[in-house]
Amino acid sequence: MDTLQGTRACVFDAYGTLFDVHSAVDRHSERIGTAAAEVSVLWRSKQLQYTWLRSLMGRYTDFWQVTGDALDYALETHGLTDPSLREDLMQAYLDLACYPEVPAVLAQLQDRGIACAILSNGSPAMLAAAVDNAGLAGAFAAVLSVDEIGIYKPDPQVYRLAVERLQLAPEEISFQSSNAWDAVGAAAFGLQVVWVNRFGQRSERLGVCPDRELATLASLPEMLG
To answer: Which end of the chain is more exposed for a tag (fewer CB within 10 A), N or C?
Structure first.
């Protein structure tokens, strides 16, 4: 395997990379019915769209609000009006399932002295809940939220936050994301980037590419040499 050299820290995107964003709807799929998968995809799509649009408009609000607004759009689109369903889905977003390989990968990196951190659009409260509920407390040297700067990925300020907080050069940080647009944003900033292409998507056409591509995080420790 072609390894990345000089990595002193691994920084992970949270939603879609460490945590399965569709597990919230999966938990309540019987209540939603046959539209469950469509609701989940639309919820996620609108959630991301709203972060990009709010950044462009200069109208930041935290990710909890954005997530709720996106859910409202998805539920209304599918004619789902039960307030208790909305509340249960929002609470489920605080307790997303982590991908099965994640705990072992983080432990291996820690054993090798590689610092691990999260860099996410999520609000501090959302990230704390996700990490704790997944049993990953203590696995991260830092959990960094865009709330600190008031703008969403892929703005370069977000990736700079990791460099400043970890006090490392960009090339000493390996950034992992399952979101192709996020991976490209980090690569454009200058981080070493591993795109975790969980769903076999095509590469984005944005003039910059991640350094490596994996199907899951399982082989990340090996890739770091």
So the answer is: N
